[in-house]
Every structure is written in C-alpha cells, then in structure tokens.
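Example 3.2
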Amino acid sequence: MASLQHDISSQHNNVPISSDIVKDFLANQSKEIELKKQVEENKKQSLKYDYELAKQSLQAQVEDLKEIRTHQKILWKWGLLFGGFLSILLVAFLAFALYLGKESFLVEIVRVICYGGSGFCAGFSLNNSKKKDNNEK
C-alpha cells in the first residue's frame, strides 16, 4: 500500500508544470492582491466618511444645545422678572391694606398665599420629577 502511494506521488512529481499555468496563477495572484488593496482603500475611505459625518453631527448637536441653553436662560430671566414683579405688586397691595387698617383681610390673604404657595410648590416639584423620569427613559 505504501509503495502504491509512493508510485502515485512520484508520478505527480515528474509531471512538468506548463508555463501558461504558472503565468495564469501569478496573474490571478496579482489580481487578488490588487483586489485586496482596493478593499482596504474602500475601508479607509468609508472610515474617513464616517469620521467626517460624526464630526458634523457632533458640531450640529453642539450648536443645537447652545441654542437650547440660550433659550432656557431667556425663559428663566423672564420668569424671574415676572415673579419679582408679582412679589412687588403683592407687597404693595399688603402695604396698602395695612395703611387702610384691614389687618383681618391681610391675615386671610396671607393664609391663602401660604396654602396656595405650598400647593403650587408641591405641584411644581411633582411635575419636575415626572419630567426627569421621562427624560431618563
């Protein structure tokens, strides 16, 4: 059995390989190498485009967040101005009521403000906590 395999392998070793086969093999190898180079070049180009896209996306996001922060600052400023105006108006009203001698009316106004203010604060806090929960999800 071993001698039979040796005879077959020795017969294949003695068969000359034609130069056309070698040339075709080398041509195929060079085409494969060129194809691999093109694939690598395509990967590099794809990575370059992905990088540029990511950079532009981040820049757009930075600009959007900047605009959002500016808008929130404006809203906060106007909210504080409105709250300050209401506070001054309330103090002026209370001072006028004191001037007129309506202490019992003032006590009732202060009681309504305290109860209403505590309810407002509770509702405001509850609303903010729900917004934060929704943003985290």
